[in-house]
Write a structure and sequence with these properties.
The complex is a heterodimer of chains A (about 110) and B (about 110). Helix content of chain A is about 0%, strand content about 50%. With about 110 residues, chain A is mostly beta strands. Chain B is mostly beta strands. Helices cover about 0% and strands about 60% of the residues of chain B. Classes of the chains: A mainly beta (about 110), B mainly beta (about 110). The interface between A and B is medium-sized, with 22 and 23 residues.
Amino acid sequence: NAGVTQTPKFRVLKTGQSMTLLCAQDMNHEYMYWYRQDPGMGLRLIHYSVGEGTTAKGEVPDGYNVSRLKKQNFLLGLESAAPSQTSVYFCASREDQSTEAFFGQGTRLTVV
Amino acid sequence: KNQVEQSPQSLIILEGKNCTLQCNYTVSPFSNLRWYKQDTGRGPVSLTIMTFSENTKSNGRYTATLDADTKQSSLHITASQLSDSASYICVVSSSGAGSYQLTFGKGTKLSVIP
């Protein structure tokens, strides 16, 4: 049982490049989330999804897009990377509003 | 606006000593509160959950308390070990309709030294 798996673990991008981060969960969870974690800021919500085919904006959505075409996958896209998007990105999933959120191991992204 | 405040921001203790971390929240309507442990370079992992009706819950050397009236929670770590060095994050879930989001504290960074 893998839980929540993020791909890739590390990535370096040049300003203006695009990339997609993949989050996969094998627990049949309805809710999935993308967060970024910066020093002194805690975890901030980028986008989330409450079911297959649905997405919604979080606290810091600008510069990111997401898709949830399959229930088990939640993709985070950066269309034109900026240095301000240098961060550690975490994906999480949970069954419903009251249950525990399970996190992936994180993706460390550096934009130069 | 829902908020979670944690204190202290960081803490250094000697191995074997006890410590207590604090969490104050203003999340409404309240569903539950979880303490997560985040090791360096890893994702957060849940330690314990507190619901509205629970006052105290233990998980090994970790004991969490909840005062729903004052909207405060604490995490007490007994006989600390070097492996307890991590960030501890207080996370509150809301039960309101359409409340899909979690509210995170900024965490307390605990360092246990020999």
